[in-house]
Design a protein that fits this description.
Blueprint (H helix, E strand, L loop, with lengths): L7 H13 L12 E5 L2 E4 L4 E4 L2 H4 L9 H13 L11 H11 L6 E7 L2 H16 L3 E5 L8 H6 L4 H4 L8 E4 L19 H14 L5 E6 L13 H13 L3 E5 L23 E4 L10 E6 L18 H42 L3 E7 L2 E6 L10 H13 L2 E2 L1 E3 L3 E4 L7 H20 L7
Parallel strand pairs: 3-13, 5-6, 5-7, 7-8, 8-9
Antiparallel strand pairs: 1-2, 2-3, 4-10, 9-10, 11-12, 12-15, 14-15
The structure holds pyridoxal-5'-phosphate (PLP).
Protein backbone atom coordinates (compact mmCIF):
# COMPACT_ATOMS: atom_id res chain seq x y z
CA UNK A 1 0.00 0.00 0.00
CA UNK A 2 1.52 3.37 -0.98
CA UNK A 3 2.47 5.61 1.94
CA UNK A 4 2.21 9.38 2.13
CA UNK A 5 5.96 9.95 2.56
CA UNK A 6 8.02 9.88 -0.64
CA UNK A 7 11.08 7.63 -0.36
CA UNK A 8 14.64 8.95 -0.46
CA UNK A 9 14.99 7.66 -4.03
CA UNK A 10 11.82 9.49 -5.13
CA UNK A 11 12.91 12.72 -3.42
CA UNK A 12 16.35 12.53 -4.98
CA UNK A 13 15.02 12.06 -8.55
CA UNK A 14 12.58 14.95 -8.12
CA UNK A 15 15.40 17.12 -6.83
CA UNK A 16 17.62 16.22 -9.82
CA UNK A 17 14.66 16.82 -12.15
CA UNK A 18 14.26 20.35 -10.75
CA UNK A 19 17.90 21.09 -11.53
CA UNK A 20 18.22 19.42 -14.92
CA UNK A 21 14.88 20.02 -16.60
CA UNK A 22 13.04 23.23 -17.27
CA UNK A 23 9.89 23.47 -15.18
CA UNK A 24 6.81 22.42 -17.15
CA UNK A 25 3.53 21.13 -15.78
CA UNK A 26 3.58 19.12 -12.56
CA UNK A 27 1.03 17.33 -10.41
CA UNK A 28 0.75 18.12 -6.71
CA UNK A 29 2.01 14.67 -5.71
CA UNK A 30 5.38 12.94 -6.17
CA UNK A 31 4.94 10.08 -8.63
CA UNK A 32 8.11 8.77 -10.27
CA UNK A 33 7.09 6.17 -12.81
CA UNK A 34 8.82 2.87 -13.32
CA UNK A 35 6.46 0.86 -15.51
CA UNK A 36 2.85 0.06 -16.21
CA UNK A 37 0.70 -2.95 -16.74
CA UNK A 38 -2.96 -2.75 -17.80
CA UNK A 39 -4.93 -1.24 -14.91
CA UNK A 40 -1.84 -0.26 -12.93
CA UNK A 41 1.21 1.97 -12.90
CA UNK A 42 4.20 1.29 -10.65
CA UNK A 43 6.61 3.77 -9.15
CA UNK A 44 10.36 3.27 -8.81
CA UNK A 45 9.90 1.76 -5.33
CA UNK A 46 7.59 -0.88 -6.79
CA UNK A 47 4.44 0.70 -5.33
CA UNK A 48 1.33 -0.05 -7.35
CA UNK A 49 -1.28 2.53 -8.31
CA UNK A 50 -4.65 2.15 -10.01
CA UNK A 51 -4.56 4.40 -13.03
CA UNK A 52 -7.44 6.82 -13.66
CA UNK A 53 -5.37 9.02 -15.99
CA UNK A 54 -4.35 6.82 -18.94
CA UNK A 55 -1.21 8.99 -18.65
CA UNK A 56 -3.08 11.99 -20.10
CA UNK A 57 -5.45 10.05 -22.36
CA UNK A 58 -2.67 8.10 -24.08
CA UNK A 59 -2.99 4.58 -22.66
CA UNK A 60 -6.65 4.20 -23.62
CA UNK A 61 -6.17 0.44 -23.98
CA UNK A 62 -4.16 -0.28 -20.85
CA UNK A 63 -1.13 1.27 -19.18
CA UNK A 64 1.93 0.27 -21.21
CA UNK A 65 -0.28 -0.55 -24.26
CA UNK A 66 -1.37 -3.98 -25.47
CA UNK A 67 1.39 -6.54 -26.13
CA UNK A 68 0.64 -6.51 -29.88
CA UNK A 69 1.46 -2.78 -29.99
CA UNK A 70 4.68 -3.15 -28.04
CA UNK A 71 5.80 -6.03 -30.26
CA UNK A 72 5.05 -4.13 -33.47
CA UNK A 73 7.12 -1.18 -32.21
CA UNK A 74 10.05 -3.43 -31.24
CA UNK A 75 9.98 -5.20 -34.60
CA UNK A 76 10.06 -1.90 -36.48
CA UNK A 77 12.77 -0.49 -34.18
CA UNK A 78 14.97 -3.46 -35.07
CA UNK A 79 14.42 -2.89 -38.79
CA UNK A 80 14.61 0.89 -39.18
CA UNK A 81 13.04 3.79 -37.24
CA UNK A 82 13.64 6.97 -39.16
CA UNK A 83 12.91 6.85 -42.86
CA UNK A 84 12.52 10.53 -43.84
CA UNK A 85 9.37 9.35 -45.56
CA UNK A 86 8.24 12.84 -46.50
CA UNK A 87 11.28 13.16 -48.75
CA UNK A 88 11.84 9.52 -49.68
CA UNK A 89 8.88 7.15 -49.60
CA UNK A 90 7.96 4.25 -47.33
CA UNK A 91 5.05 1.86 -47.51
CA UNK A 92 4.22 1.78 -43.77
CA UNK A 93 2.78 5.33 -43.46
CA UNK A 94 0.82 4.84 -46.68
CA UNK A 95 -0.67 1.58 -45.47
CA UNK A 96 -1.50 3.11 -42.10
CA UNK A 97 -3.07 6.22 -43.66
CA UNK A 98 -5.23 4.04 -45.94
CA UNK A 99 -6.40 2.02 -42.95
CA UNK A 100 -6.95 5.11 -40.83
CA UNK A 101 -9.14 6.72 -43.47
CA UNK A 102 -11.60 3.83 -43.20
CA UNK A 103 -12.37 5.14 -39.68
CA UNK A 104 -13.45 8.56 -40.98
CA UNK A 105 -16.68 9.63 -42.64
CA UNK A 106 -16.93 9.05 -46.38
CA UNK A 107 -15.08 11.68 -48.35
CA UNK A 108 -12.08 12.02 -46.05
CA UNK A 109 -9.10 11.69 -48.25
CA UNK A 110 -5.70 12.84 -47.09
CA UNK A 111 -3.58 12.52 -43.96
CA UNK A 112 -0.61 14.46 -42.64
CA UNK A 113 1.57 12.90 -39.93
CA UNK A 114 3.52 14.86 -37.34
CA UNK A 115 4.81 14.26 -33.82
CA UNK A 116 2.26 15.62 -31.34
CA UNK A 117 -1.18 17.10 -30.78
CA UNK A 118 0.06 20.64 -31.05
CA UNK A 119 1.72 19.90 -34.40
CA UNK A 120 -1.44 18.24 -35.68
CA UNK A 121 -3.28 21.48 -34.87
CA UNK A 122 -0.50 23.67 -36.30
CA UNK A 123 -0.94 21.76 -39.54
CA UNK A 124 -4.74 22.13 -39.41
CA UNK A 125 -4.41 25.88 -38.84
CA UNK A 126 -1.99 26.34 -41.73
CA UNK A 127 -4.01 24.10 -44.02
CA UNK A 128 -7.28 25.88 -43.23
CA UNK A 129 -5.63 29.15 -44.26
CA UNK A 130 -4.19 27.61 -47.38
CA UNK A 131 -7.47 26.00 -48.40
CA UNK A 132 -9.66 29.04 -47.76
CA UNK A 133 -7.20 31.93 -48.30
CA UNK A 134 -8.84 33.56 -45.26
CA UNK A 135 -6.73 34.95 -42.46
CA UNK A 136 -8.90 34.75 -39.31
CA UNK A 137 -9.79 31.77 -37.17
CA UNK A 138 -12.41 31.29 -34.47
CA UNK A 139 -11.69 29.24 -31.36
CA UNK A 140 -13.29 28.94 -27.93
CA UNK A 141 -12.57 30.18 -24.46
CA UNK A 142 -11.28 27.41 -22.17
CA UNK A 143 -10.02 25.56 -25.23
CA UNK A 144 -6.67 23.83 -25.33
CA UNK A 145 -5.13 23.07 -28.70
CA UNK A 146 -1.44 23.00 -27.79
CA UNK A 147 1.50 25.17 -26.89
CA UNK A 148 3.44 25.88 -30.08
CA UNK A 149 2.74 29.40 -31.30
CA UNK A 150 0.06 28.67 -33.90
CA UNK A 151 -1.80 26.24 -31.67
CA UNK A 152 -1.22 28.49 -28.68
CA UNK A 153 -3.01 31.25 -30.56
CA UNK A 154 -6.04 28.93 -30.57
CA UNK A 155 -5.63 27.94 -26.91
CA UNK A 156 -7.40 30.09 -24.33
CA UNK A 157 -7.63 28.15 -21.11
CA UNK A 158 -5.14 29.96 -18.84
CA UNK A 159 -3.46 33.32 -19.19
CA UNK A 160 -0.25 31.81 -17.81
CA UNK A 161 0.03 29.68 -20.93
CA UNK A 162 -0.13 32.81 -23.16
CA UNK A 163 1.59 35.46 -21.07
CA UNK A 164 4.65 36.94 -22.84
CA UNK A 165 4.18 34.77 -25.93
CA UNK A 166 2.22 37.18 -28.10
CA UNK A 167 1.61 38.61 -30.58
CA UNK A 168 -0.48 35.68 -31.71
CA UNK A 169 -1.95 34.46 -34.93
CA UNK A 170 -5.23 36.15 -35.81
CA UNK A 171 -7.63 34.11 -33.70
CA UNK A 172 -10.82 35.47 -32.16
CA UNK A 173 -12.10 33.60 -29.10
CA UNK A 174 -15.78 33.07 -28.42
CA UNK A 175 -17.67 31.47 -25.51
CA UNK A 176 -18.08 27.69 -25.37
CA UNK A 177 -21.28 26.13 -24.02
CA UNK A 178 -20.03 25.68 -20.45
CA UNK A 179 -23.54 25.25 -19.09
CA UNK A 180 -22.57 24.78 -15.43
CA UNK A 181 -21.08 28.28 -15.56
CA UNK A 182 -22.98 29.81 -18.45
CA UNK A 183 -21.11 32.93 -19.58
CA UNK A 184 -24.51 34.54 -20.24
CA UNK A 185 -25.93 33.59 -16.81
CA UNK A 186 -28.62 31.45 -18.46
CA UNK A 187 -29.73 27.85 -18.06
CA UNK A 188 -29.88 25.13 -20.65
CA UNK A 189 -32.25 24.49 -22.47
CA UNK A 190 -34.23 27.67 -21.79
CA UNK A 191 -31.16 29.68 -22.88
CA UNK A 192 -32.09 29.11 -26.54
CA UNK A 193 -28.37 28.65 -27.26
CA UNK A 194 -27.48 32.26 -26.46
CA UNK A 195 -23.80 31.40 -27.00
CA UNK A 196 -24.40 30.44 -30.63
CA UNK A 197 -26.48 33.57 -31.16
CA UNK A 198 -23.72 35.69 -29.69
CA UNK A 199 -21.24 34.39 -32.26
CA UNK A 200 -23.65 35.09 -35.10
CA UNK A 201 -25.12 38.39 -33.97
CA UNK A 202 -22.17 40.01 -32.24
CA UNK A 203 -18.86 38.55 -33.27
CA UNK A 204 -19.64 37.84 -36.91
CA UNK A 205 -21.82 40.93 -37.32
CA UNK A 206 -20.00 43.64 -35.41
CA UNK A 207 -16.37 42.52 -35.22
CA UNK A 208 -15.30 40.09 -37.87
CA UNK A 209 -16.46 39.62 -41.42
CA UNK A 210 -17.48 35.97 -41.80
CA UNK A 211 -15.89 36.14 -45.25
CA UNK A 212 -12.49 36.49 -43.61
CA UNK A 213 -12.83 33.56 -41.21
CA UNK A 214 -11.21 30.40 -42.57
CA UNK A 215 -11.94 27.93 -39.78
CA UNK A 216 -13.56 27.27 -36.43
CA UNK A 217 -11.54 25.02 -34.12
CA UNK A 218 -13.57 23.02 -31.64
CA UNK A 219 -12.88 20.34 -29.04
CA UNK A 220 -16.04 18.17 -29.07
CA UNK A 221 -15.55 17.93 -25.30
CA UNK A 222 -13.18 20.46 -23.79
CA UNK A 223 -10.32 18.62 -22.11
CA UNK A 224 -7.69 20.73 -20.38
CA UNK A 225 -10.29 23.48 -19.98
CA UNK A 226 -12.26 21.37 -17.48
CA UNK A 227 -13.96 18.40 -19.17
CA UNK A 228 -16.83 20.50 -20.43
CA UNK A 229 -19.53 18.68 -22.42
CA UNK A 230 -21.61 20.98 -24.63
CA UNK A 231 -25.23 20.28 -25.65
CA UNK A 232 -25.71 18.75 -29.10
CA UNK A 233 -27.45 21.92 -30.35
CA UNK A 234 -24.34 23.93 -29.61
CA UNK A 235 -22.08 21.78 -31.77
CA UNK A 236 -24.76 21.66 -34.48
CA UNK A 237 -25.08 25.45 -34.32
CA UNK A 238 -21.32 25.85 -34.76
CA UNK A 239 -21.35 23.46 -37.72
CA UNK A 240 -24.14 25.55 -39.26
CA UNK A 241 -22.20 28.79 -38.82
CA UNK A 242 -19.22 27.20 -40.56
CA UNK A 243 -21.29 25.75 -43.41
CA UNK A 244 -23.33 28.92 -43.98
CA UNK A 245 -20.20 31.05 -44.23
CA UNK A 246 -17.78 28.82 -46.14
CA UNK A 247 -15.61 28.24 -43.05
CA UNK A 248 -13.98 24.90 -42.25
CA UNK A 249 -14.83 23.14 -39.03
CA UNK A 250 -11.78 21.60 -37.37
CA UNK A 251 -12.46 18.97 -34.72
CA UNK A 252 -9.59 18.61 -32.27
CA UNK A 253 -9.91 14.96 -31.25
CA UNK A 254 -6.51 14.86 -29.57
CA UNK A 255 -7.95 14.11 -26.11
CA UNK A 256 -11.60 13.16 -26.71
CA UNK A 257 -11.04 10.98 -29.78
CA UNK A 258 -9.74 7.46 -30.23
CA UNK A 259 -12.59 5.58 -28.46
CA UNK A 260 -12.46 7.61 -25.24
CA UNK A 261 -16.17 8.45 -25.57
CA UNK A 262 -17.01 5.05 -27.07
CA UNK A 263 -16.65 6.39 -30.60
CA UNK A 264 -13.53 6.69 -32.71
CA UNK A 265 -14.38 10.33 -33.38
CA UNK A 266 -15.80 12.24 -30.42
CA UNK A 267 -17.58 14.64 -32.77
CA UNK A 268 -19.79 11.73 -33.88
CA UNK A 269 -21.54 12.03 -30.50
CA UNK A 270 -23.03 15.28 -31.76
CA UNK A 271 -24.25 14.09 -35.16
CA UNK A 272 -22.09 16.42 -37.24
CA UNK A 273 -18.97 16.10 -39.35
CA UNK A 274 -15.92 18.32 -39.42
CA UNK A 275 -13.84 19.24 -42.46
CA UNK A 276 -10.52 18.60 -40.77
CA UNK A 277 -9.84 16.28 -37.82
CA UNK A 278 -6.76 16.22 -35.60
CA UNK A 279 -5.62 13.34 -33.38
CA UNK A 280 -2.56 12.39 -31.31
CA UNK A 281 -2.20 10.99 -27.75
CA UNK A 282 -3.76 7.48 -27.82
CA UNK A 283 -3.16 6.98 -31.53
CA UNK A 284 0.53 6.04 -31.24
CA UNK A 285 0.09 3.43 -28.50
CA UNK A 286 2.67 5.27 -26.36
CA UNK A 287 4.90 6.65 -29.10
CA UNK A 288 4.46 10.24 -30.31
CA UNK A 289 2.35 10.86 -33.37
CA UNK A 290 0.20 13.73 -34.63
CA UNK A 291 -2.48 13.14 -37.24
CA UNK A 292 -4.28 15.71 -39.39
CA UNK A 293 -6.98 14.38 -41.71
CA UNK A 294 -8.65 16.55 -44.34
CA UNK A 295 -11.78 16.23 -46.43
CA UNK A 296 -10.91 14.94 -49.90
CA UNK A 297 -12.77 17.74 -51.63
CA UNK A 298 -10.32 20.26 -50.13
CA UNK A 299 -7.70 18.88 -52.48
CA UNK A 300 -3.96 18.74 -52.01
CA UNK A 301 -1.40 21.42 -51.08
CA UNK A 302 1.54 22.79 -53.06
CA UNK A 303 4.76 20.83 -52.63
CA UNK A 304 6.89 22.20 -49.79
CA UNK A 305 4.07 24.27 -48.27
CA UNK A 306 4.01 21.99 -45.22
CA UNK A 307 6.19 19.04 -44.18
CA UNK A 308 8.52 17.81 -41.45
CA UNK A 309 11.55 15.59 -40.85
CA UNK A 310 10.06 12.78 -38.82
CA UNK A 311 6.33 12.70 -39.65
CA UNK A 312 6.30 10.71 -36.47
CA UNK A 313 8.67 7.91 -37.61
CA UNK A 314 8.35 4.32 -38.65
CA UNK A 315 8.36 3.07 -35.04
CA UNK A 316 5.49 5.47 -34.19
CA UNK A 317 3.68 4.45 -37.34
CA UNK A 318 4.10 0.78 -36.38
CA UNK A 319 2.70 1.58 -32.90
CA UNK A 320 -0.19 3.50 -34.45
CA UNK A 321 -0.91 0.79 -37.00
CA UNK A 322 -0.97 -1.94 -34.35
CA UNK A 323 -3.12 0.26 -32.08
CA UNK A 324 -5.59 0.75 -34.91
CA UNK A 325 -5.64 -3.00 -35.57
CA UNK A 326 -6.37 -3.51 -31.88
CA UNK A 327 -9.24 -1.00 -32.05
CA UNK A 328 -10.73 -2.53 -35.20
CA UNK A 329 -10.53 -6.03 -33.78
CA UNK A 330 -12.05 -5.04 -30.43
CA UNK A 331 -14.46 -2.32 -31.56
CA UNK A 332 -17.71 -3.79 -30.11
CA UNK A 333 -16.00 -4.60 -26.81
CA UNK A 334 -14.40 -1.17 -26.55
CA UNK A 335 -17.76 0.49 -27.23
CA UNK A 336 -19.34 -1.64 -24.55
CA UNK A 337 -16.52 -0.86 -22.11
CA UNK A 338 -16.85 2.85 -22.66
CA UNK A 339 -20.59 2.91 -22.28
CA UNK A 340 -20.94 0.26 -19.52
CA UNK A 341 -18.03 1.38 -17.36
CA UNK A 342 -18.83 5.01 -18.18
CA UNK A 343 -22.35 4.50 -16.76
CA UNK A 344 -20.96 2.81 -13.67
CA UNK A 345 -18.58 5.71 -13.05
CA UNK A 346 -21.33 8.29 -13.64
CA UNK A 347 -23.65 6.49 -11.22
CA UNK A 348 -21.04 6.45 -8.47
CA UNK A 349 -20.07 10.08 -9.09
CA UNK A 350 -23.68 11.25 -9.15
CA UNK A 351 -24.22 9.51 -5.82
CA UNK A 352 -21.20 11.44 -4.51
CA UNK A 353 -22.76 14.63 -5.86
CA UNK A 354 -25.89 13.89 -3.80
CA UNK A 355 -23.85 13.16 -0.68
CA UNK A 356 -21.13 15.79 -0.71
CA UNK A 357 -21.51 19.55 -0.92
CA UNK A 358 -18.14 20.00 -2.66
CA UNK A 359 -19.15 17.94 -5.70
CA UNK A 360 -20.65 20.64 -7.89
CA UNK A 361 -21.03 19.01 -11.29
CA UNK A 362 -20.51 15.62 -12.88
CA UNK A 363 -20.39 15.43 -16.68
CA UNK A 364 -19.00 13.31 -19.44
CA UNK A 365 -19.53 10.97 -22.35
CA UNK A 366 -18.36 7.37 -22.23
CA UNK A 367 -15.18 7.22 -20.20
CA UNK A 368 -14.26 10.89 -20.47
CA UNK A 369 -15.71 12.24 -17.25
CA UNK A 370 -15.12 15.37 -15.20
CA UNK A 371 -16.07 16.13 -11.60
CA UNK A 372 -16.09 19.83 -10.82
CA UNK A 373 -15.18 20.51 -7.19
CA UNK A 374 -16.62 23.63 -5.56
CA UNK A 375 -16.50 25.09 -2.07
CA UNK A 376 -20.30 24.67 -1.88
CA UNK A 377 -23.12 24.06 -4.29
CA UNK A 378 -24.84 27.41 -3.95
CA UNK A 379 -21.86 29.73 -4.50
CA UNK A 380 -20.21 27.33 -7.00
CA UNK A 381 -16.88 28.93 -6.05
CA UNK A 382 -14.15 26.71 -7.52
CA UNK A 383 -12.78 24.34 -4.88
CA UNK A 384 -9.18 24.83 -5.92
CA UNK A 385 -7.64 23.81 -2.61
CA UNK A 386 -10.17 21.03 -2.21
CA UNK A 387 -9.51 19.44 -5.57
CA UNK A 388 -5.78 19.51 -4.97
CA UNK A 389 -6.25 17.83 -1.59
CA UNK A 390 -8.36 15.14 -3.23
CA UNK A 391 -5.63 14.47 -5.79
CA UNK A 392 -3.05 14.11 -3.02
CA UNK A 393 -5.23 11.89 -0.81
CA UNK A 394 -6.03 9.62 -3.76
CA UNK A 395 -2.34 9.30 -4.54
CA UNK A 396 -1.57 8.39 -0.94
CA UNK A 397 -4.17 5.63 -1.12
CA UNK A 398 -2.91 4.26 -4.44
CA UNK A 399 -4.94 6.04 -7.13
CA UNK A 400 -3.51 8.22 -9.90
CA UNK A 401 -5.83 11.08 -10.81
CA UNK A 402 -5.29 14.27 -12.80
CA UNK A 403 -6.89 17.71 -12.69
CA UNK A 404 -8.41 19.74 -15.53
CA UNK A 405 -9.58 23.35 -15.69
CA UNK A 406 -9.66 25.29 -12.43
CA UNK A 407 -10.97 22.64 -10.05
CA UNK A 408 -12.14 19.63 -12.03
CA UNK A 409 -10.99 16.05 -11.51
CA UNK A 410 -10.66 14.14 -14.74
CA UNK A 411 -11.68 10.53 -14.66
CA UNK A 412 -10.12 8.80 -17.65
CA UNK A 413 -9.05 5.28 -16.78
CA UNK A 414 -7.94 2.96 -19.56
CA UNK A 415 -11.07 1.65 -21.29
CA UNK A 416 -9.82 -1.85 -20.52
CA UNK A 417 -9.70 -1.37 -16.75
CA UNK A 418 -11.23 -4.28 -14.82
CA UNK A 419 -14.47 -3.70 -12.92
CA UNK A 420 -12.64 -4.60 -9.71
CA UNK A 421 -9.93 -1.94 -10.20
CA UNK A 422 -12.54 0.58 -11.27
CA UNK A 423 -14.67 0.01 -8.16
CA UNK A 424 -11.58 0.10 -5.93
CA UNK A 425 -10.44 3.37 -7.54
CA UNK A 426 -13.89 4.89 -7.06
CA UNK A 427 -13.88 3.79 -3.41
CA UNK A 428 -10.53 5.56 -2.91
CA UNK A 429 -11.91 8.64 -4.66
CA UNK A 430 -15.06 8.67 -2.55
CA UNK A 431 -13.04 8.36 0.68
CA UNK A 432 -10.92 11.33 -0.40
CA UNK A 433 -13.96 13.42 -1.35
CA UNK A 434 -15.61 12.57 1.97
CA UNK A 435 -12.52 13.59 3.95
CA UNK A 436 -12.07 16.87 2.09
CA UNK A 437 -15.80 17.61 2.27
CA UNK A 438 -15.66 17.26 6.04
CA UNK A 439 -12.74 19.71 6.17
CA UNK A 440 -14.52 22.34 4.08
CA UNK A 441 -16.27 24.93 6.27
CA UNK A 442 -18.90 26.06 3.77
CA UNK A 443 -19.73 22.48 2.90
CA UNK A 444 -21.30 22.36 6.37
CA UNK A 445 -19.30 19.41 7.62
C1 LIG B 1 -7.50 18.75 -27.12
C2 LIG B 1 -6.01 18.85 -27.16
N1 LIG B 1 -5.41 19.36 -28.24
C3 LIG B 1 -4.08 19.46 -28.33
C4 LIG B 1 -3.26 19.05 -27.30
C5 LIG B 1 -1.77 19.18 -27.41
O1 LIG B 1 -1.21 17.92 -27.56
P1 LIG B 1 0.36 17.71 -27.29
O2 LIG B 1 0.58 17.85 -25.84
O3 LIG B 1 0.63 16.32 -27.81
O4 LIG B 1 1.07 18.75 -28.09
C6 LIG B 1 -3.84 18.51 -26.14
C7 LIG B 1 -3.00 18.10 -25.01
O5 LIG B 1 -3.42 17.87 -23.91
C8 LIG B 1 -5.25 18.41 -26.07
O6 LIG B 1 -5.85 17.92 -24.99
Amino acid sequence: MPSSEPSKKVRSIIERDRKALLKTTRLPYPFVVSHGDGDFAYDIDGKRYIDFTSFIAVYNFGVGSPASVRKAISRQAEKIMHAAFYDFHAEEPVEYAEKLLTMFPKGFGRVFFSNSGTEANEAALKLSKLFTKRQYTLAFYSSFHGRTLGSLSLTASRTRQREHFGPFNSVVHVPYAYCYRCPFGKEYPSCGMACVDYIKKQVLTEELSPKEVGAIFIEPIQGEGGYVVPPKEFVKGIREIATDNGMLLVSDEVQAGYMRTGKFLALDNFGVEADIYTMAKAAGGGLPIGITVVRHSLGDIPEGAHSNTFGANLASIAGANATLDYVKKNMPTLREYSSGKGKLIMKRLNEMKERYEIVGDVRGIGMMIGVEIVTDKSSKDPGVRQHEEILKLCFEKGLLLMPAGTSTLRIIPPLTISKQSLEKGLDILEDAVKTVNSRTPRAGA
